[in-house]
Amino acid sequence: MNIQLQEKIKTLPKEVYDFLTSVASTDLNILVSSKYHLTLPQIKTFSDLIAQLFLREIPVANLVDEIKRIFGFSELVARQMACDIAGVRLLVVVDWLGADVAGLINSWGGDSAKYQSYTDIQSQAVVKEAEWMKKQLAEPIEPLDNFEDEDADWEDREQKIRDLFTANMVEVLNSEDDAFLSEINEYIFHFIFNVRESIKDEFVALLFNNQEVLTAQRIVLDGKQVDATIANWLAYFISQKGSALFDAVALSDFLTNSPNAKFLDFDEKKLLSNLLQVYRNLKFFPDSLPSNDPKYWMIFPVAIPEEPISRVASAEEATDLTRPIPPMSLAKPKVFPKVVTTTPEEEANQALKDSQIKETETLLARYPEGSLERLALEEELTQLRK
């Protein structure tokens, strides 16, 4: 997000500001972006578009034209995306916008009633984000305690992340709590996309100055024995592998064959590997991203669901504008033997509904209880089964 928009959003009423900037809002922005296969530069433009809508600089009624102008989408896809943006992000602040958002969604070919789950999610998230965050952090690290204080602004939260990179990195690297690590990743991506992209380099600089001891035995750096700090390990890695983007093969070779790393025990190698992955993911972002799919994006390593998502429908194929986001495969209606009691249209609609139910059930199992994605999918599954 550009600096001008950052300053402007600070003038929004607190409730509106919270809906625009909460962690839940970042999740929903990425979910909509992934449905339409936006590239990283387009995702940044998308975030600016949402901010301008919240600031009332762009009237909601102009959203279809803005989408066509910014992203070059066809009229059909632009209407679909407008419905999703309005339903997922704007219905929750309809009083502030002073626009008939529901009416616009319906006029664009959508069903505003089916977006209610997203309004509920955001309303609950703004109020309960602090409580939810504390629950995830079963063993909170001191600087991140009360990270989601309702009175804290993003400057306070940024400082807490800086504290993490300065004095609590070893404890975080040791963590096996994927929920906790995913939350930290989400905050960092929020800063990169919505504050300033250069903040990633600031975090890297903190790592290069971090004096926490990472492993037990001292290491040899530039012909001298030095403490095995995070800063010294990073300097040693660069002395061995250079300062360019490296892959898993180079990392494995370093851990296995470099003089300082090859004698580490398993746990220490894992800790060092985690550190080097964090360094790579930040230093070389976005080139370090494994794919354009946001579900694979990370700074701190976390487990990725093994099962692949079935074929993702293109934006042109996404005819159901209120399906759960991220997108699921939208299979073509199966052809059933004709019977006199149903019309071809009824058969196609039922086949499509059955396909959606099956795919929603499959996707549901991939998300933990209480997550935004699971809540949205559960709501959609209820609607589909009616």
Average pLDDT confidence is 77
Oligomer: single chain
Biggest sheet strand line-up: 1-2
Radius of gyration: 23 Å
Q: What is the N-to-C order of secondary-structure elements (H for helix, E for strand)?
A: HHHHHHHHHHHHHEEHHHHH
Number of separate domains? 3
Unreliable spans: 136-151, 306-343
Q: Major β-sheet, in short?
A: 2 strands, antiparallel
Written account of the structure:
- Helices cover about 60% and strands about 0% of the residues.
- The protein is mainly alpha-helical.
- Strands 1-2 form a two-stranded antiparallel sheet.
- It is elongated.
Using brief descriptors, characterize the structure shown:
386 residues; mainly alpha; two-stranded antiparallel ribbon; 18 helices
Lay out the secondary structure:
Layout: H1 3-9, H2 14-21, H3 23-35, H4 40-54, H5 63-71, H6 75-90, H7 94-97, H8 101-107, H9 116-136, H10 154-167, H11 169-174, H12 178-194, H13 199-208, E1 219-221, E2 224-226, H14 230-241, H15 248-257, H16 266-283, H17 344-364, H18 372-385
Helix pairs in contact: 3-6, 5-6, 6-8, 14-16, 17-18
Concise account of the structure shown:
Helix content is about 60%, strand content about 0%. The protein is mainly α and about 375 residues long.
